[in-house]
Structures are given as C-alpha cells and as structure tokens.
Amino acid sequence: MELEKVKEDSIILLQAKGIVELPEDFLLHFHTHIYCHQGSISFLFNDKPYTCNAGEFVFWFSGSQLTNLTFSKKIKASILLVERDFLLANIPDQSWSIDVVLHSKENPILHLKDKNDKQRVLSNFQLLYAKFSELEHLFYAEILKLQMQLFILEMWHTFANEYERRKRTLESGSLYERFMRLVQEHCIKEREVQFYATRLHITAKYLNFICKQNTGITASGWIQRYARERITILLQNKNLNISEIADQMNFSSRSFFTRYVRKVLGVSPREYRQRLIVI
C-alpha cells in the first residue's frame, strides 16, 4: 500500500496506490472527487451498480446514497475531498448551472474523452489544495474563497461537457430516456405528467406504466424528485429570495410555492434556509 495523505481539514488531497483509506464517515461531511489513473472503483449509487475505470472521473455529493464501495487491488487514484459546508459557503451563483448539477447527482461517473478535461481535473485538485496550504498569505481567506469558486466553475465546465454528450445520446433513446431528458429540461416549470405525455405523444397512464416498468417509480414520482432537487439548489442560492424562486418555478403565488415545498421537503422554504444557517 502507498498512500500520501497531505492534510485533513476542510480540504483533503490524497494520492493513493493500492489500498485506499478514506476518512470515517467521509460521505456525511465531504463532496468526493476521484480521478482513476489505474484499476477500477465499483459501487452502488442509488441502488444502481457502477464501475469507474482508468481515465474516468467519479463525483459524489455529500449525503449521496452510496454503498458497496470497492477499489481494485491495482487502484491508483487522485482523491480530493471538500468539506460540505466549506464548499456551500463559497459556491458561485448556481442558477445557470442547475441542469448540470442535477445531472451529476444522477450520473456520478464522467467519461473524460478529452485529454484537456483530464488535465483540467487534476490541475484543479492541485490548485485548490495549494491555495488551501498558503496559511501565511496576508489575504488567505479571500484568495481561498476565490480559488474555491474557480474550482467549482472548472468542475461545472467538465460536468457540462458530459451533460451535453449524454443529452445528444438520449435524444435518440427510448421513451423512458426521452421522458427523463424532458423532465430535466422542463421540471422547473412543468410538474404535471400530462405535459410530458403530450410531448411524447402518449397517454399519461402509459407514461406512468413505462416509468414504473423501467425503474419502479412513476412518472409523477420522477417529476417530483427532480423538482425537489431544483428547489433545494435554488434555496441554497442566497442571491435569490423566496418570491423570485417561486416565479422561476412558475408558481402563481408564493403561498402555493410554500405549500409545494412543505409537501416535498417537509418544511417551509424559510425553515429550510434557517437549517442551512444552523448546519
């Protein structure tokens, strides 16, 4: 085993070869970024099996439903862990990137076909950690915040390339795949099954049947799931007030939006934001 652990704090950078030892409960506290140089990484994500091979990149949000994590014996990987609240406190405006964020929550592996993307990922790891290590810098807090934002924007660029590639693939896919693409694209304003059924030229009943057959979840269940994700992302954006979010999601009033949020999150928008402050 060869494992270089640089520092354990808000940002942890590991260069691993052989057995990989991650911090205890890492998934509760950190967003995880791994570039696989050699070997493979197997895991269940949302109860679905995945394998990340050499030349691929895997990303898990803090709190992801991840089980059965296994690294192959010949694993060689660069691993960057960014503490959840530290990243959240320094995140740029997410409004434009919401599709990419949602895509990465559902598709944890990125296939880095372009060598420039590979270099961008690895350089991004090093630049963030280097800035984190400059404790004597007179403007340490300010430069670290800026580097954290640059890190996020660079990663979003990489995610966006994968998102567009996958989007082109799904456009010629099955009814279920086309439905999922439509949900990702329109659920910020459209939350009725009939809207999607009409777009696909089938009945709402048949659309529910297709989804249930493929995933065990109805069409309305998928729509609500994606809408819930969008709501949480928008509520984390401190530059938007609750009325603006309600408008973006096409609710006729703030009170209707509040009732919907209570239904899908179990708390009001204001209560959700207060919890973010406390955490």
From TrEMBL:
InterPro entries: Homeodomain-like_sf, HTH_AraC, Tscrpt_reg_AraC-type_HTH. The keyword DNA-binding applies. GO terms for molecular function: DNA-binding transcription factor activity; sequence-specific DNA binding. Keywords: DNA-binding, Plasmid, Transcription, Transcription regulation. Gene3D superfamilies: Homeodomain-like (1.10.10.60). SUPFAM superfamilies: Homeodomain-like. PROSITE patterns: HTH_ARAC_FAMILY_2. Residues 177-275 form the HTH araC/xylS-type domain. It comes from the Bacteria. This is AraC family transcriptional regulator. It comes from Adhaeribacter swui.
